[in-house]
Amino acid sequence: DVKVTQSSRYLVKRTGEKVFLECVQDMDHENMFWYRQDPGLGLRLIYFSYDVKMKEKGDIPEGYSVSREKKERFSLILESASTNQTSMYLCASSLRGQKDSRGSNQPQHFGDGTRLSIL
Amino acid sequence: AQSVTQLDSQVPVFEEAPVELRCNYSSSVSVYLFWYVQYPNQGLQLLLKYLSGSTLVESINGFEAEFNKSQTSFHLRKPSVHISDTAEYFCAVSHTGGFKTIFGAGTRLFVKA
Q1: Separation in Å, CA of B56 to nearest CA in chain A
Q2: Which chain A positions have a beta carbon within 8 Å of B34's beta carbon?
Q3: Model pLDDT for residues A73-95, shown as the tens digit of each residue
């Protein structure tokens, strides 16, 4: 089975801090994603990466950046944490696939999430 | 632009009763459709998917969903629910040739004894 591991289940940080959320997958997936999950809003895509060192903005990238130096690891960075970034953060990975080379027909595999509180 | 609407935010139901969780999508191109389930304090897990072929797809734990292109719907059904089905369910859509998957806001299913 695919394993997507997020480094922390719970994290508490202070306003203005630089925050790193780490995600590692063990199945050689090309695509990796960062979402935030808020009640009533579902999952919203922050950033995604389809290859090492490649990244694309999602729907809500403001205040965030990402890093993908190795295929298995995708990091989310809050440059200067603010209280409105308090949320559940979910990392996911997927294969790119062959027939559909971008992987939209592939299911995503999720980590258990990091519940981040900014005080 | 794509969007996904889950018509019910919460669905309470008694154990052994049937349930339907509704999902409608909008897209101008061909789509792939997914249902994911999230149990408390966990990430999302794939429940079932429609890629092509038969419009009725099934999961291993008794859920099924039917792709209806004319209604742009992908409703999830189970004829008899268990307490253990209590979870949040997300409908999701992606389009052919894209990277992104769009998720609905989720439906919380509460199964009562």
Answers
A1: 17
A2: 107
A3: 999 999 999 999 999 999 999 98
